[in-house]
Amino acid sequence: MTTHPTEQSAPADDTPVAFYDHLLPGIEAGRYRITVEQQLPAEQLPGARLDPVEQIVDVRAAQFRLDPAWVHAVYPAAHSQGPFNGLLPHITLNPTALPWERESFTAGVQNPGRAPWLALLLFGEGELPGDPNALGTTASVTIRALLDGDAAVSGPVLDRDAVDPTLLDTPCQVVDVPGELLAQLLPQPSDLAFLAHVRTGGEDAAPVEGQDSRPGQDAHAVITTARFPGAGRGRYVAHLVSLEGHTPPGPQADGKPVRLVSLHSWTFTSCPQSGDGFGRLAGRFTPGNGEHSAAPLCPAPAAGLTEELGTLMEQGMVPMTHITESGERALAWYSGPFLPRVAPELPRPADGHFPDADGLLLHEPHTGTFATGYACAWNVGRALALADPGFATTMIRLRHQGRLRRATDRQYATYRRQLFLSAPSAGPTARMAARAAALTPREQFEELLRGDALDALAPALGIPEDDEPRPRTVRAAPAAYRLDAPKRSSAPPQASPDAREAAAWLAKLRTLSGVPFDCLVPDQRMLPPESLRLFHVDRGWLDALLDGARSLDRHPGADATTDAELDDLLDGQGTVPTAGLLLRSALVPGWPTLRVEARTASGTTPVEVIRREALGADVLLMLFEKMPDRLTISEPHQGLHFGVDDQGNVALRSLAPGEVGRPLGRSVPVGADPALTVTTPVGARVLDIGRLAARLAEDVKPGSPLSPAEFAVQLVRAPEQLTLTFEGTTR
Q1: What are phi and psi of 239, to 5 degrees?
Q2: pLDDT tens per residue, range 155-203
Q3: Distance, CA of 58 to CA of 63 (rounded, Å)
Q4: 423 closest CA partner among 410, 434, 409, 437
């Protein structure tokens, strides 16, 4: 196999990206004849010359259909909308050598540049007769019918004997393209090599559904089209077609349309620039853009409020209607788990857990009303636990198992104390002799029962010494609370499967999974459209949420051991979130793998992301281990975004060893140069690949032509990013 590395390419990232010209297979697909001849050195010997032996070998590869799993990613994403007029659509394939496993065009066409047999063609509305609305409609024919040909179209000329006979009656998808249109859209054979390359590393902006988009060093083949979507709004369909068996595009003498095998297709809509590009959307979060600017999460200030009320709202409190147990309506203050400040530590009961929501209704002295945030958290946790039958059953079973163990331990302790410490009062020597003579507690107990001692043992076995009833004192004072959690045993016993399952469920709930969005953001004005909000996570709110979920069938006295076991397991279930952000923007649906990097003030230490999830269509939630000092929002860093910038220029990049991909600070105007971007009679904007490659070589590699990998490096469109620095986030 032959590869052409171009070192690490731009954009620079934690995951290196490298481009290669191609990955050639050891042998191309097709039919081969192997001839073996053998001749003895002495020609005069009888039988010195043997008849040659021939064997036909078929090397088979994908030809008429592709496994859907082979399509790693497409851009723009299927059915997406956006300003794509400056980008070149592309497709990423998992089989790295797939584009070079066959010959493009017929065998009589010279192919010195190792042009791929696959090409990506882009069609607009009204261009394909069989798909006037660019919906991706294709015709289905059998492979046998394709090979037999159709008098109305110009199809591929292929060797029927090289096709697997079992596939002849299987269908394949085809599109009939007018010959004149194909001649305008498809580059020359020598230029096709620049539209295919191999990439390693990086990640994809819009992976195909079900495919993994995480960065890695896996290699992928990339096929790019030479056509830009139009500047106006319009729908487009991209077809990955086979060029095998065809002649190069050109004027067709018979005027017949060309039948191409479509191996994969998808549609998207290109919209004109309307202020919804990445740079414009992200730029709104900078200071000075009013409610769009990044700010702490709190209700919007209202005019005419007193200083006390304004202070409460700045602390994240929202006035809401509170319905009491008697049905009366009153004003109360609510605060969710996300606050613009660090919340004071919530005092806990003596046993460390809140038994009900009533004890969490706090009095707000400035307004004489209740603060219901913690009580709401307790009720939400209990409701979520009851709504999950699996967790509810596990929790109740765990409680019963704990009580059974406790009762068994108490009873065994009672038996042991009575049998070993209640021997006849004959002095220490007699008691020691009695203990030595006893084989086991069970045998001694059975012996006492056989000796008519049941009546004598009954009073003694009634109540253990440490559980003797004590005088009860009724107090009117409230229960004691403390700030620190009760101490737990340093060496807990081996946890049961139910305890581990319950702890895992509670740990997920601790990241607010499943909590209604209204409980997180009680007022929609706290998170207006196109805004970014930072917050601190109230640990007391999380504790109340978990206590509500753990309240199922809980008895404070009988379940202390089970509670301690769950506490110990929760301590080992990962980091508790202390901060986070909410992003409500068109960036969320438009860039599914939007990069959001949180770092400390130095900018070198990343902040751990505990949870990242899209809540709804346009809201992104991220929870961190601590409040970040620096936030970077950027387009997905991947080596697959190709095209020109907003001004229609190609930014030149260095190809020097060790500096591949470094911006050179100058560019080549492509969009405004009619020699480089040709507008065809149908209105398509198509790159003249050969001229563009020569023009770029003059600037970045004088005296030498560009390779396909080096050409791809120049067309990489650098991802835009926005860095925000925060001060005073610990108030």
Answers
A1: -120, 125
A2: 998 888 888 888 899 999 999 999 889 999 988 888 899 999 998 876 5
A3: 13
A4: 434
